Amino acid sequence: MARKRSAGEMEQLRREFLDRAEAAFEQMFGTDGQNGLVTFTEREDRACETTDALARWLLEEHLALDEAADPEAQVDCPLCGGPVRYDSPEQAELEVREFRSRRGKIEYERAARRCPRCRKVFFPAG
Ligand SMILES: [Zn+2]
């Protein structure tokens, strides 16, 4: 089950996306409508670079909602099957994972859990 973002968090995320989309627009058009791009290849390269970066950001932000990334989410211990959760997200050890998407390399974090019975540290699957 995925964590829900609050309305405030969603608004902040929306604004960040719009800022990034505006920056992409500027990289393509600049102030003069061309931004130094002349050949078709130059225009295509710039359009692909800017939209690939937007796609990677969208994917990373979406993945950040997964349970595996949320230290507060309860998961089952892979050894004993018992419930494990962290009360304090600040204490959670985070593992940064890299993933190669169709639009390039992205990174996302998963929070480690320690089972109080087995005393083993593990990262939830996902
Ligand atoms: Zn356990």
Polypeptide structure, described:
The chain is elongated. The strands form 3 sheets. The chain has a two-stranded antiparallel sheet. Strands 3-4 form a two-stranded antiparallel ribbon. The chain has a two-stranded antiparallel ribbon with strand order 5-6. The protein is built from 2 helices and 6 strands; from the N terminus they run ααββββββ. The protein is of the alpha+beta class. It has 2 domains: 65 residues; 59 residues, no CATH class. The chain binds zinc ion. The site of zinc ion has 7 residues, from loops.
Keywords, separated by commas or semicolons:
alpha+beta; two-stranded antiparallel ribbon; 2 helices; binds zinc ion
What is the helical fraction, as a range of percent? 25-40%
Bound molecules: zinc ion
Strand residue percentage: 15-25%
Determine the number of helices (DSSP H or I, runs of at least 4 residues): 2
Low-pLDDT runs of 5+ residues are: none
Biggest sheet features = 2 strands, antiparallel
Spatially, the strands of the biggest sheet line up as 1-2
Work out the radius of gyration. 20 Å
> Mean pLDDT, rounded to whole units?
86
The 3D shape can be described as: elongated
The helix/strand class is alpha+beta
The H-and-E topology, N to C, reads as HHEEEEEE
**Domain tally:** 2
Report the strand count.
6
Separation, N- and C-terminal Cα atoms: 12 Å
Task: Sum this structure up briefly.
It is built from two helices and six strands, in the order ααββββββ.
Record the SSE blueprint.
Blueprint: H1 7-29, H2 40-63, E1 75-76, E2 83-84, E3 94-101, E4 104-111, E5 113-114, E6 121-122
Antiparallel strand pairs: 1-2, 3-4, 5-6
The structure holds zinc ion (ZN).
